[in-house]
Amino acid sequence: AGALDTGKGQFSVEVPGLIQTARDVYNLPIKTDGDSVVTFSDVATIQRTFKDATVFTRVNGKPALILSVNKRSGANIVKLSQAVRQITEESAKSWPVGLEHSYMLDQAAIALNMFGSLQFSVLTAVVLVIIVSVALLGIRPALMIGLSIPLSFMMAFLFLQFMGMTVNMMIMFGLILTVGMLVDAAIVVVEYAERKISEGMSRKEAFIRSTRMMFWPIASSTATTLAAFMPLLLWPGIVGKFMSYLPIMVIVTLTASFITAMIFLPVVGGLVARTKVSKKEKDAAMALNGSEHFDLSKIKGMLGLYVRFLAFLVKRPLFSLIIGISLIGSIYVAYFNNPTGMVAFPKIEPQYATVAITGRGNYSPVQIRDILIRVEKAVLPVAGIKDVVLNFGSTGAVASVPNDTIGNLQLELAPYKDRRKASEIFAEIRQRTANIYGVGVELIKAEEGPPTGKDINLRISSTNYDDLIPTVTRVRNFIENKLGNTIDVEDSRPLPGIDWKVTIDREKAARFGIGVRELSPYVQLVTTGVNIGSYRPNDANDELDIRVRLPKNERSFSVLDSLHIVTSAGLVPVSNFIKRRAVPKVPNVKRWDSRFYMSIGANVAGNNPKTGTPVFAQDKVDQLKAWVASQTWPKAVGFTFSGADKQTQETNQFMIQAGIGALFLMFLILLTQFNSFYQVFITLSTVIMSTAGVLLGMLITGQPFSAIMTGIGIVSLAGVVVNNSIVLIDTFNRLRGEDVDPVTAILMTAAQRTRPVILTTVTTIFGLLPMALGISINFFGRSIEIGAPSGAWWTSLSTALVSGLAFSSLLTLVLVPVLLTAPSIWKTQIGNGWARSGRIIMAIGRIFGASGRIFAGRRKQATPLKAKGQTRGQIEIPQDIDSAQRYIEVDKTGLVETERNGVIVVSRQAAE
Q1: Rounded to an integer, what distance in angstroms lies between the CA atom of residue 884 and that of residue 868?
Q2: CB 668: neighbour CB atoms within 10 A?
Q3: Which parts of 492-579 fold into alpha helices (H)?
Q4: Do 534 and 469 fall within a single domain?
Q5: Residue 163 in contact with residue 110, Cβ under 8 Å?
């Protein structure tokens, strides 16, 4: 109340007005009559209680309180989980007996499980790569190749540490993806050095020569692979942020592998490579060394069969190309005639789900609680569920829920290996809750990747709000009744319900000297109560409201009508001044780009119940688009498909742009390497072959085309498949530079480089095979896990890489040699054609000339073919003409036919 200065000092003055206890409220006066005072204690009971319950939570059928802990961005979720558990266990020691606690929806456990699964997948891939290397090269070369894996990984993790990045799912798969790829450079270096050692070169000289000869091919192949992943760094949006770690990890790891292959590996090879070579092995190696030693007949085994088959095809380029193009074209035709469907993200076995309970009407919180408990009792006995969390009043859901949701159950499923499929669990839940009338039950799987919403998401907008409700109703009826194979249909139309609107007759109230301020508390007495103040007890940190309200059994409009208010004319019933009426609930109006809108969502059933065949969301979206386009709608109404469909379209558009950018970068790199547009064209043609292989793989496995995962596979595959062509073309160009004819050069190239091509292809395929097959081998626990959710993420991407690389590599070993030699073969064949035409024309001329001489009476005998050195008249066969050659005199000129390496060469030489 201020301070008082008495002249002798200043003193603070306090007037106690703070309510500190319930007794203070009891003693508050509310009316006086003479000497009589009426206090609150005379007309009311006062008790400390809770607010009306608006939130209910139960865990596994028992009332519970839930404490949710969320990690900050960039924090380590595993360490956070461990800290929370440690603090909880320490605190639980002082809790009352009978109070239980448990941990639910722990993302750290899922992360550890996924990390462990991916860890074993990396180890499995490494083991398979080393086994393949041992089988094809031997133990020492395989160990040298295997050394590049930990060295590359170590440098990659040092980079992650330097950049402050933590290990996540994308980084782990980046390691799996690069296990088979990062050894490519090491394989090329070691294989070339091993071949030179077999030819008699010392191991030190062999690795020095290998590094010198293979530097540019390896640099080009690594650069083209990186060029395929670099455009993925520019991926916009949430999906781009989600996927960005994958190209980063691939780029860093492959760069580290190049450094390892060019610097560390030659040093190690010069010290530990073998020194002894058997005579048989040396003879076999020398048969492939140089054109003067090259002998096709000495090449044995599968390599010999391949080279001889290639020799047959090389001489018939048109036939070979027709067969190859027909094979590729037939795959495209087969896929487009039998598409396997398209999805944004692959379907992942969920670990969490939400059971959304929907209802329409003015349910009270207690009624909603009772409904949720009925659903909870139906769900709890379902096998395969670890925890069931009932929520009302706060969403707490692991996925977005419909607008008319009145409550939900959060489900955490048991570990994948200990339960049946989630689809079977959800089917049983739907069956058990189907008989709960008055509400709807919708199962929503937690989205593991970027959110895309339901399979079908349609936004209907208009400048006229009145057009929306009938349009949405019409579209929903089509989706539910005619589109077929749709479930969990929802829309955002206003929910049916009523609000009570109380209107005060201000004019009549004014006649009695009262107004809204005096009448409003009477209405609050039957609702939430009249707030008359607040106080803070000693045992609380926050202030508590002091509210006056009628007893629970008297809170009704009939009681409100019976209440009397003091006016200038005395006590008058409140009902004389107020009118109440029920009105529809006021809807939430949503706008998008200045237009009113409502949305419709639906999921697509996994399989057609009649045929059992898979049903794909994209097919249903296309059907819905076609139906919308065929109907007549109000002029102001517009339709926009969003969610998974929009995500798919945006992803496809970006993938096309990324593919074009990657091809352009590879074009520049290859043109710098080969300095030949034709050879660049040959190299990039393998990308088309690989795409056909991807489609063939999807046809065989029946997997749908994942716009994101398969799209990444195709773009990244473009940078991998060209490596084989680079190795072949580089060796071919080097041999051609040594004046080796094209056919011999390509056969030598095939004989020398087939092994590294096959080895790099097989190691890459085997590195990805565990993911493609969904297999994770726990070497320490001695168990094999098949179809784990952590691997299902990458099945589409791995399958695309495996099938595309396998198919394109086989065609590369055939079509690339054919295309390299085709120009010289066709040029020779055209030359022979002209020569044959010339001989025919000359023969015809001789016939006409002989006929003319007969008729002129001056017949002249044609000069017969003579052996060399013989003469006839003044004509002598030149001494330097081989006896196997034909020599024909025509007008004092000799035509000489010579067969060289199976090709007939015709030359003209003056007769002597």
Answers
A1: 10
A2: 14
A3: 506-511, 516-524, 557-562
A4: no
A5: no
Q: Which residue has the higher pLDDT, 78 or 284?
A: 78
What is residue 285's predicted lDDT score, i.e. its pLDDT? 61
* Same-domain pairing of 574 and 624: no
Residue 900 has pLDDT above 60, yes or no: no
pLDDT at 110 over 70: yes
Q: What is the DSSP string of 473-503?
A: HHHHHHIIIII-SEEEEEE-SPPP-EEEEEE
- Does some domain include residue 52? no
Integer Cα distance of 688 and 697 in angstroms: 14
Is the backbone of residue 865 left (phi > 0), alpha (psi -120 to 50) or beta?
A: beta
Q: Rounded to two decimals, what is the model's pTM?
A: 0.70
Residues 22 and 145 in one domain: no
First to last CA, the chain: 141
pLDDT at 874: 43
What are the residues facing 500 on neighbouring strands?
Answer: 582
For residue 380, the model assigns a pLDDT of: 92
Specify the pLDDT at position 471: 93
Q: How many angstroms separate the CA atoms of 79 and 71, rounded?
A: 10
714 near 659, Cβ under 8 Å?
yes
- Strand stretches in 656-766, DSSP E: 705-706
Q: Are 783 and 665 in contact (CB under 8 A)?
A: no
User: 284 and 178 share a domain?
Assistant: yes
What is the reported pLDDT for 398?
52
In which element (H, E) is residue 592 found? strand 591-592
| 544 strand-pairing partners | 535
Q: Alpha-carbon dihedral of residues 448, 450, 452, 455, nearest 10 degrees?
A: -40
* 675 plus 818 within the same structural domain: yes
**Statement to judge: residues 636 and 513 lie in one domain:** no
Count of CB atoms situated within 10 Å of the CB of 715: 26
Q: Which helix (H) or strand (E) holds 353?
A: strand 352-358
Q: Look up the CATH number of the domain holding residue 289.
A: 1.20.1640.10
Angle at which helix 265-272 crosses helix 203-229, to 10 degrees, equals 150
Residue 822: strand, helix, or coil? helix
Residues 6+ apart with CB under 8 A from 705: 339, 340, 341, 342, 343, 698
Mean pLDDT calculated for residue range 531-544: 80
Task: Tell me the average pLDDT of the chain.
Answer: 81
> What pLDDT was estimated at residue 912?
44
Give me 776's structure tokens. Answer: 């994770």
Phi first, then psi: give them for residue 388, nearest 5 degrees.
-125, 120
Q: Which residue has the tokens 């065949």?
A: 613
Q: Are residues 260 and 392 in the same domain?
A: no
Q: Which two tokens stand for residue 656?
A: 């096309």
Phi, psi torsion values for 446, nearest 5 degrees: -70, 135
CB 124 within 8 A of CB 178: no
**555 vs 562: CA distance, rounded Å:** 12
Most confident of 503-507, 778-782, 906-910: 503-507
Give phi and psi for 733, each to the nearest 5: -65, -40
254 and 139, same structural domain? yes
Crossing angle of helices 169-198 and 107-137, in 10° steps, is 10
Instruction: Count the domains in the chain.
Output: 6
Q: How many other CB atoms are there within 10 angstroms of residue 789's CB atom? A: 19
3-state secondary structure of 627: helix
Tracing tokens 């270096």 back to the chain, one arrives at 189
Encoded tokens for 547: 């509210």
Place of tokens 């009649």: 610
Q: Which helix (H) or strand (E) holds 182?
A: helix 169-198
Per the CB < 8 A criterion, the answer to whether 220 and 249 are in contact is: no
Q: Which domain holds residue 116?
A: 109-345+647-827
Q: Which residues contact 912 (CB under 8 A, 6 or more apart)?
A: 875, 876, 878
CA-CA distance, 741 to 590, in Å (whole number)?
75
Cβ-contact 486, 615 below 8 angstroms: no
Q: What pLDDT shows up at residue 883?
A: 45
Pairing mode, strands 705-706 and 342-343 = parallel
Provide the β-strand partners of residue 441.
357
